[in-house]
Automatic annotation (TrEMBL):
Annotated compartments: Cell membrane
Keyword Cell membrane found: yes
Highest taxon of the lineage: Bacteria
Native source species: Candidatus Jettenia caeni
Keywords tagged on the record: Cell membrane, Membrane, Protein transport, Transmembrane, Transmembrane helix, Transport
Family membership: Belongs to the ExbD/TolR family.
Name of the protein in question: Putative biopolymer transporter protein
Primary site of residence: membrane
GO cellular component, one term: plasma membrane
UniProt GO MF annotations: transmembrane transporter activity
Pfam families, A to Z: ExbD
Example GO BP: protein transport
Membrane topology of the entry: Single-pass membrane protein; Single-pass type II membrane protein
Length: 137
């Protein structure tokens, strides 16, 4: 009597496709996320209920709480602001300035800065805000 030998089959889980998918997911998140370097200027942006924040991060003018000016994280004197803005936007097609101001800065200061930006030939000024969290009644 001859007995058949039982073949033992081992199932092997191939991990290569899973590693490939994890790599692709990681790559996707790295490519689609945007990293913006915020200056060490402490600001408390005003909050809004109905508008979203801006995604423009190319040309930023910041007005700190003590009304000091920073263009792209570099301090700027008010008297030099028009010249600095003209030089920065001279070769740009999109003449949009992002104006970040602390919520405690006076309205007159913001208007003066906006006037200087218009004097430098800028077409649009965007003011980013922080979205207010919804309150449950």
């Amino acid at each position: 009597m001859r007995f058949r030998e039982k073949r033992i089959t081992r199932s092997i889980i191939n991990l290569t496709p899973m590693v490939d998918m994890l790599f692709l997911i990681l790559l996707f998140f790295l490519v689609t996320s945007s990293f913006t370097e915020q200056p060490n200027i402490k600001l408390e942006l005003p909050s809004t209920k109905y508008t979203s924040t801006s995604k423009l991060e190319e040309r930023i003018l910041t007005i700190s709480r003590d009304e000091k000016l920073f263009f792209q994280n570099e301090p700027v004197e008010r008297k030099d602001l028009i010249l600095v803005l003209k030089n920065a936007f001279s070769k740009q097609d999109d003449k949009t300035l992002v104006l970040r101001a602390d919520k405690n800065v006076t309205y007159g200061t913001v208007v003066d800065i906006m006037d200087a930006a218009k004097g430098a030939g800028l077409k649009r000024i965007v003011a980013p805000t922080v979205l207010e969290p919804e309150k449950n009644p």
